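Researcher: Next entry in the queue.
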Amino acid sequence: MKDGKVLFRDVGLAGTFFRRLTGLWGRRELAPGEGLLLSPCRQVHTCFMSFPIDLVFLDTKGKIVGLVAGLAPWKISPRFSDAVLVLELPAGTIEEYGLQKNDVLEIHR
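Model: Structure for this entry, 109 residues:
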């Protein structure tokens, strides 16, 4: 949530090593409102992917500690040492919602 608004409704959880490793492999896209939450996670790769994604790095309280817009396939993101979660979203989502560092997102599982 940002400003009390629900931003993403269809978010999967990658909470095991294998699920985090494979992430979005085999997907052709992420639809608006879709995402994947990686836990725990401080850095992401897009190896074997065919589309760019936006990344939102969150600390234990849901505060955004890092943002990466449009990470292309076959790239590695910066590592954010304060992050414990990473939300993978469709490219363009960060700009669309005006997400900024230090915003707090509330996650309901």
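Model: The CA atoms of residues 7 and 74 lie 27 Å apart.
Researcher: Noted, moving on.
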